[in-house]
Amino acid sequence: MRMNACILTLAIGVAWAGVSPSAQHNTAADIEDGGRVFQNTCANCHGPDGNEVAGIDLGRGQFRRPMTDQDLAQIIRSGIPGTPMPASNFSEEQAARVVAYLRSVAASRQSVSAVGDPVRGKALFENKGTCMTCHRVSGNGSRLGPDLTNVGQLRRAIELERSLLDPDAEVLGNNRFYHVTTKDGVTTTGRLLNLDTFSVQLLDSKEQLRSFVKSDVRDHGFVDKSTMPSFKEKLSAQELADVVSYLVSLKGKTTP
Amino acid sequence: MTTREPERARRSEPQRARRSRRNTGLRRIGSLILGVGFVTFVAFVVPLTSLSAQQVTFDRLLHADREPQNWLSYSGTVFNQRYSPLTQITPGNVKNLELQWIWQARSLEKFEATALAVDGVLYTLQGPPVQGSYQVVALDAATGRPFWTLEYKPAPEAGPCCGRVSRGLAILGDTLFLGTIDAHLLAIDAKTGKILWDKETARAVDKYSITHAPLVLKDKIIVGVAGGDRGIRAFIAAYEARTGKEMWRFYTIPGPGEPGNETWSGDSWKTGGAAVWNSGAYDADANLVYFGTGNPWPDRDGSVRLGDNLYSDSVVALDPDTGKLKWHYQFTPHDQMDYDSTQVPILADLQWQGRPRKVMLWANRNGVAYVLDRVTGEFLLGKPFVRVNWMEGFDKNGVPQRVPGKLPTPEGELIMPTVLGATNWAPAAYSPKTGLFYVSVWENTGTIAVSGGGRGRQRGVAGTGGTPMGQATLTPNLKKEDEGFGAVRAFDPHTLDKKWEFKMNDITWAGVLATASDLVLSGGKEGYFFALDARTGELLWKIALGGQVNSGPMTYAVNGKQYVTIAAGNALFAFALRQ
Hints:
The complex is a heterodimer of chains A (256) and B (579). With 256 residues, chain A is of the alpha+beta class. Chain A has 3 domains: 14-110, Orthogonal Bundle (Cytochrome Bc1 Complex, Chain D, domain 2), CATH 1.10.760; 113-167 and 228-249, Cytochrome c-like domain (Cytochrome Bc1 Complex, Chain D, domain 2, Orthogonal Bundle); 173-222, SH3 type barrels. Helix content of chain A is 32%, strand content 16%. Chain A is built from 7 helices and 9 strands; from the N terminus they run βαβαααββααβββββα. Chain A has a 5-stranded antiparallel sheet with strand order 8-7-6-5-9, with no helix packed on it. In chain A, strands 1-2 form a two-stranded antiparallel ribbon. Chain A is elongated, with a radius of gyration of 23 Å. Chain A starts with 13 loop residues before the first strand and ends in a 7-residue tail after the last helix. With 579 residues, chain B is mainly beta. Chain B has one domain: Methanol Dehydrogenase, Chain A (8 Propeller). Chain B has a 5-stranded mixed sheet with strand order 1-32-33-34-35, with no helix packed on it. At the A-B interface, α1 and β6 of A face loops of B.
């Protein structure tokens, strides 16, 4: 069951970004319990991150209208008539724990991007950050790193921020780099395109499509560290917020 | 030959050598006179036999090992060894294999079928695309050119869980048999491709389907129904070959009052799955037919179906005349990891601890390989063949000892093997010549979570690195080895110790074929078809076919020439030695 229609009938949305007073009275165990209930039940429609129903993002406190904790608990228990959001048999305490969990997750996902300027961020991205030596946006820049044209649809601000500060924290499987050293000692490093029993395919640093037969090479393997540098010392907090804000704004628009 | 060789293999070896010599000599003389005097070389008298009535008798099926030029049932014989006595292609000359022909199917579905080779004609099929039709074909085995094509459009409500596929046909007399994803059993004239009868075994609207090759037993056609992950109560049934009339039905979940029903809490038996989606085996001496059964449903939420959930994840031995249960062995009692036991049962006659024993070999999706006495069902040996952390040994009755806590949880629990298993449905092989058991395996870890009984979309399952369902087209592999890989592994059935492995970077959905010339052939998700030395696992030959291999290789001979076929992508490829 999906609840795409759910809550669309509600008023125009706003983002709720704070931790409610009541949530602060919940213990870690309460929040954990709420998370379990959420993942076991609510996530079937809302998704594990709470952002799979159009217009709402439970994990970031975004609803179609301002919601108090009591509003949310009421909806969890009673559902929303006329929509796919069903009533539940949760007790008031259980519903409150789910709310506490959602508030807790939202609080932890607050990012400096909230105060960033995407226009300044674009300039930093293209100039000081030298991001386009590896990344591509709307047809401009390198193909070596991930294409960021629609990264704002794929990744949350908190994740983008983490990638900028700690690129090794998470490298998605399709962004892995690989190195190959041929028998004559030439090493090529590039983005891995395919690794099978007999061959390796890369996009090398010159954006050339390369293929190597394993039996013909001396050495090959994954590049353990991300080739992306950390911007922890390179950008100020404000600059970081600007870049994240720019990345979040990238929703797949392409150059005509 | 070692002392472990089965008696039957020892007896038949000289005969096979003589056949092989005849084969070579006859080829030189020419095909016109080849059929004279050599009954076993039916391939050479296609024009005559193809006009005679009742071409493939049950006796021929029962003794299919006597006619190595043919491949008369899903895994070659009713023993399902996927072992061919043909020896023209050897480890020494396999590098000279070259493409002979390709048959391209219309549908872009996964091609999971293994063809039948019957006296110079190949029968195979491809599953239907959405809103499209099955393609069943009779091909000239030497040229790949179709004699006829049958299209059958399943009902629109047909909804198999995991692909609109078929794993093959069966033949008896002059009739082919096909189980369909709308749960019909069709009888097809093997000479014309016309449907002779069409039996609805169960209602497609109730989510029943058939995806495996039917099993012919005497005058009956035996099929089981899939749909376990749609909440059916599965059954195995026998239909009269001539008319399609149902002769008996065995529910893989006992009803009220039947032994085993008490292993399901409440009404969970009504929707408990235990589907059948791969072919069975037959032992004529014991007069037993064997099928594996699928997981209980809901797959990961065991709280709504307390108990062992018989006969899910089991092998059942039935009397083929009555459908009565003779014995069963449950591989994974009260499964919460989706460990379908729908692997193809392999029957072998071994010298077991000093005396002849009729056994069944089984490498299970749950990561454990088994040797059972196929006459009594006695558990003889079980051992993990990949990394396994959900069980630790067996009790004296062969019941696996569970590792406490290794169960799906809302948060997810690291369980090995993960949901798609240590092997899946791809058929394994056994060579009586080498005495080794060859299995396509996945080494994989994964976090398995329970998500409220599987409502809604599939979620809460994470195999590290991912092990997606097989597809027709190639997909990039970017996994590191510790995230999972595929392999062909050879095991000694007396100890279940691994003798060798051929590792692949990506996983494999391909079956395995062994030949009397000590070749093992297989493929994988990477799209290669390859030949290995059956004794060492050494790679001898390979070719990239441009699509994933989702079927098992088979081999046959026509006009004195041995062919090997493999389906990859949505096409069937035939190879033979360069002339």
